[in-house]
Design a protein that fits this description.
Length: 890
């Protein structure tokens, strides 16, 4: 109850008895009688009533100081059945859906009785026709809501007593047999239980205590507390406890998790402190310590500004020790990882945008870190990052500008390639001969050009040199300017032709000079600092068309027609020789042999070509689809089915080459079957030339060398099949609103974050109370299944070998409404072994979650078991046990 309830009672009395006046000498008789008729279904509004004023003859009216009104706002009351006034007992009774409103206070109950002789108000339940109690009192002020069985309040002492009160404070739900209201903000409870379960009257667990001090919206302080699970008291007890409750985040200690490892001993993991810095950003500082001397530190921060941006930052560092000092296998290494994600709201600035996606650090971090089991990152061979800013200038023509910093890291070779930064600028296309209004038609009107600028500061380094002076010493800087001039037009009505001339200018700030050094008996590349540039140009033209063919079947057949669409294209490109940029050097110091080279070799935008290029390219793209009669007889239109999404052929012929003019033919195809659930993609390379005994291509047709017309050098086929239980029921599929069950599966298993195991392994949000199934066993088991198969064939040097042949599968299913099971595994037929395998089980225990994940074999073999409360306010109440892989430092 709140202090304003005193005013509610007072105003209700005044509304009933009427408006009165007080005098300093005598009280005149009332001229109006008390209403005899009860008012039903009536809602009243009270005027503002001031306190009595004392008036004397010696005091002027101007000098009287007015006191603050008792009632500062209007009040309303109503009841469905009646509002009864008992003048003898000095009581007012509101019955059946009784309601009283004053300022931000709402009081609703089956019955409300106001005793203005005892200065008390009572609110309680009423019985229905079957004798059951209904219409519990509901007291609400602001965001605080209390739902007891009954309330008794003294508006003179401002104290209250509440029986079987129920209230929600943040994630907590509190129920007490008796509650005493001491003042405006402090309650004392007896026989109380508090929990995060949804049903406070029948929770799956709760904390039982007899002494509670409750400050709404701030804290709960309890005495001896016992944890009860399924109405069975447990030996888990606390002599006292403090639970903060607030709508905003609060700083506090994060309790660590105990674990043990065969390699590094006992440990405390993920302990630290949470800093609630503001409503816009926070910070978590976590750490690990192992008894063999290993330790780790992590800083995690989330930030957001509405309608502006949001993001998160993770900094991770670990110092890992293996074995013990003095032993031959003793080693110490440091690993780190930096992850930053930033996204700008599109509404904040339509003309500029800043974004970041960073994942960089030690190449072996995800393979050696003992704090997490990140299967996807461990099996991935690359780390990549990108930070970009773009700006659009709405001029005529439009100008676009962007700055980007990129990072590519191979975790196997530990090579790192970075651009710090990449500058790109472009001017939109300009049509100098096109009319301002109307269609651009013809060769001349479609002539257009644009300008593009690209500048890079490119760095190539390794893990061991990352952010060291050697990393920046070998950086390469360059600028590339391109001006494409192009047009398109129609030929003979059915052919589309394009022509373009491209001008390219490259600036470098370092070039090379090759020379033979006799003292070293080798050719040395000497860097020549200073500005230098080269300029090239090229010409290309092409013509293509689209050919449609349809084969119709007899009427009445399920297959009505097959449609074949072909898109042939022929392209001619010419690039002259730029031999003026080439010099010569002596490779062995004899002076008898001279080799050509260009000082621009090794530049980030390449070098000018010495040989003329004169190439004719051919391509043919095909799509095939069918029209079939729809199963729904009410539909008049035939249903289209794609038989081949693509069937592509491509090759080229070099007119200026002295040998091996015809390039290998590349064939690729793809289709989707079984209602687009099975994806099949195929690609192969066919070489028309033969090879000699050393495996080198020779200028002899393969068919003239005793072989077939083409020699297959490589081939690959991949198949992916996705299937789910919702596909069996069209109605459920439409209800889900997502294709293939709406869930994407990870064939490499589920990543496990050891710092927070409360999240589901299956990536699903908790169901609401209305959606929670009640049956024990589902006769329809929901599931989703994904198969992935890959086969690679290699025959470049007539090895005739299957280089890759693997099958992977991922499946998730609900055994019961609360039990989930998942598996991810595969088999490599070339290596003859099982690929990465993970089993996962999960039990939804309403307010709790229990899960188990297991990777039974391999370098990353591990298992983990977790049971704990889902709510973040009680996240430390858990049992978390893992057996992490004993990763060896490399």
């Amino acid at each position: 109850m709140q202090r304003n309830l005193f005013y509610i009672v007072f105003l209700t009395i005044f509304l009933t008895l009427g408006k009165g006046k007080s005098y300093s000498q005598e009280i005149p008789k009332s001229s109006t009688s008390f209403p005899a008729k009860n008012q039903t279904n009536k809602e009243e509004t009270a005027p503002i009533i001031e306190e009595n004023l004392v008036v004397t003859d010696t005091v002027k009216m101007d000098s009287i100081i007015k006191k603050k009104p008792i009632i500062e706002s209007k009040i309303r009351r109503k009841a469905v059945d009646y509002e009864k006034i008992n003048q003898k007992k000095k009581q007012i009774t509101l019955y059946n859906q009784a309601e009283v409103y004053y300022q931000d206070i709402e009081l609703k109950s089956g019955i409300i009785v106001i005793d203005y002789q005892k200065n008390e108000v009572y609110a309680g339940r009423i019985k229905d026709s079957t004798g059951n109690y209904i219409q519990h009192p509901v007291f609400k002020q602001g965001a605080n809501v209390i739902e007891p069985d009954s309330i008794r309040f003294n508006f003179k002492t401002k104290k209250a007593k509440v029986w079987n009160s129920r209230t929600e404070q943040g994630e907590f739900r509190v129920k007490a047999a008796e509650t005493k209201r001491e003042n405006d903000s402090v309650y004392y409870m007896k026989g109380a239980r508090f929990t995060t379960a949804k049903d406070i009257d029948d929770p799956e667990y709760y904390f039982q205590t007899n002494k509670v001090k409750f400050v709404p919206g701030k804290k709960i302080v309890v005495g001896l507390t016992n944890m009860v699970i399924a109405d069975v008291p447990t030996p888990i007890a606390l002599p006292f406890a403090f639970f903060p409750m607030t709508e905003t985040s609060k700083s506090g200690i994060i309790m660590p998790t105990y674990n043990d490892s065969n390699l590094r001993g006992f440990s405390l993991q993920n302990g630290g402190y949470y800093f609630a810095l503001s409503d816009s950003y926070d910070l978590s500082a976590l750490g690990d310590y192992y008894t063999n001397g290993s330790y780790g530190m992590r800083l995690q921060s989330n930030y957001a500004k509405r309608y502006k941006f949001n993001g998160n930052l993770n900094l991770r560092y670990e110092n890992l020790v293996s074995s013990e000092r003095g032993f031959p296998d003793y080693s110490r290494t440091t690993i780190y990882n930096i992850q930053w994600s930033h996204a700008q709201d599109a509404k904040s600035n339509p003309s500029s945008r800043f974004s970041a996606s960073v994942n960089l650090g030690s190449s072996q971090y995800f393979r050696q870190s003992v704090n997490q089991i990140n299967n996807g990152s461990q099996l991935n061979n690359t780390l990549s990052s990108s930070i970009s800013y773009s700006k659009t200038f709405n001029s005529v023509p439009q100008v676009n500008l962007s700055l980007t910093a990129t990072h590519q890291q191979n975790t196997n070779t530990q090579e790192i390639n970075m651009t710090l930064p990449t500058l790109q600028a472009s001017v939109d296309r300009v049509f100098p001969f096109a009319p301002k209004d109307g269609i651009k038609k013809g060769f001349i009107k479609n002539i257009n050009f644009q300008y593009n600028l690209r500048g890079e500061n490119r760095i190539h380094t390794y893990d061991s040199l990352f952010f060291k002076p050697e990393m920046f010493r070998d950086a390469k800087i360059g600028f590339q300017h391109t001006i494409p001039l192009s047009t398109n037009f129609k030929l003979f009505k059915y052919f589309s032709a394009t022509s373009s001339v491209n001008y390219n200018e490259v600036w470098y700030f370092k070039t090379i000079q090759k020379e033979y050094v006799a003292s070293q008996n080798t050719v040395v590349d000497t860097e020549i600092p200073g500005f230098d540039a080269f300029r090239t140009y090229s010409f290309s033209t092409g013509v293509g068309t689209t050919i449609y063919g349809t084969f119709n079947f007899k009427k009445g057949k399920k297959l009505q027609a097959i449609r074949h669409v072909m898109r042939p294209n022929v392209t001619y490109s010419y690039t002259p020789s730029f031999s003026n940029y080439y010099d010569t050097y002596d490779p062995d110091g004899s002076g008898t042999i001279r080799k050509d080279y260009t000082r621009f070799d090794g530049g980030i935008f390449g070098a000018p070509g010495k040989n003329m290029s004169n190439i004719m390219s051919f391509s043919l793209n095909n799509t095939i689809e069918a029209k079939v009669t729809d199963k729904d007889s009410t539909k008049t239109e035939a249903r289209k089915i794609m038989l081949l999404n693509n069937l592509n052929f491509s090759t080229s012929y070099d007119l200026s080459a002295d040998s091996l003019r015809l390039a290998p033919m590349r064939i690729s195809a793809g289709t989707q079957l079984f209602k687009q659930k099975l994806d099949i993609n195929f690609a192969t390379t066919l070489d028309p030339y033969a090879i000699n005994n050393t495996g080198r291509r020779i200028d002899t047709w393969n068919i003239d060398n005793g072989g077939s017309l083409f020699r297959m050098t490589s081939s690959n086929i991949t198949m992916n099949y996705r299937f789910s239980s919702t596909d069996l029921d069209e109605k459920e599929k439409n209800k889900a609103g997502k294709q293939n069950g709406g869930r994407e599966d990870n064939l490499f298993g589920k990543n496990t974050d050891l710092s927070d195991r409360r999240e589901s392994q299956f990536g699903e949000e908790d169901k609401t109370e209305d959606e929670t199934p009640t049956e024990f066993f589902k006769y329809k088991l929901p599931f989703d299944l994904t198969f992935a198969y890959s086969l690679t064939y290699s025959n470049i040097n007539r090895e005739n070998k299957i280089t890759g042949n693997s099958l992977m599968v991922s499946m998730n299913t609900d055994l019961t409404p609360k039990w989930k099971i998942g598996v991810a595994t595969g088999y490599d037929f070339v290596q003859q072994g099982v690929t990465f395998t993970q089993l996962r089980f999960e039990r939804d225990l309403l307010s709790w979650r229990m899960d188990f994940n297991w990777s039974p074999f391999g370098e990353n073999a591990n298992w983990g078991f977790f049971i704990g409360i889902k709510s973040g306010v009680l996240s430390d109440i858990k049992w978390d046990k893992q057996r992490l892989p004993d990763r060896v430092l490399r």
